[in-house]
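## retry 2 of 3
previous attempt timed out at serialization; input unchanged, resubmitting
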Amino acid sequence: MVRGRLISKNGKIINPTQWADERARRLAEREFNLSWADKLQSDNQLLAGYWWVPQDYGKPYISLEQDLAKTLGIQLGDKLGFDIAGNPLTVTVTNIRKVDWDTMRVNFFAVTPPGVLDKYSANYISSFHLPLGADAPMNQLVRKYPNLTIIDVAALMQQVRGIMQKMSSAIEYVFAFSLIAGVAVLYAALVATREERISEATLMRVFGASRRQVGIAYLAEFACIGLIAAFVAVIAANFLAYYLSIKVLNIPFQFNPALAISTMLIASIIIPLAAWLGLRGFLNVPPRQLLNSI
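## retry succeeded, writing output
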């Protein structure tokens, strides 16, 4: 790969401040890793334009990744100017590619035909699978060739998993706090409306309703409240997760129906149970005594 800075498009000097998008400004300010390839990689998909043939060896062509081209507003046929260690290079965009970055293979945003970058100093990069327990030969290789830089992707992924685990734990604590707060709010609401509910239960008992029927009515009421509250929470949480996945983290959104259904079922059980614990006291009181109390 060859390091180069994008300095012009179609003969016009590029100024990072001309883009309002923060990512576009960062791309315009940084150096690109330019590379070359004679064949299209299996994890790349050609979206527009054409891939070069052997007769295009050394011709000033370039292939761009679709997100990079879209962010910087680059189209087929545009002429891009690069500054490579003080040496200018002008190339023409001949195709746009879609890259599958999840394959962990070496991929580049910008690729040229072979021969275009031969006169520039280059660094070489590769990826390979290192089995567990094979660290000793790798350490010997690094000692023998100290100019090699080894990046242990497994160690990086372990750190990422650790961070995700901590985030998951934090979310679980927030969920537990929210659940406790919700139960407290429910209890406060029951206390605030206790007199009204006693009056309602008394009237139902006076008109012939049994203790069991009154209890079932209250359980059904709070089960509906819990189910509706959980449904609204699931919809809001998934909309927020979708926005964060697509707009912020740029990762595919996956809806978890099992989690959504289990959340609604748990809410429809816990909330009636909490309400029952708060209201069962006056259901055992005879209607006549309840009438005297109100």
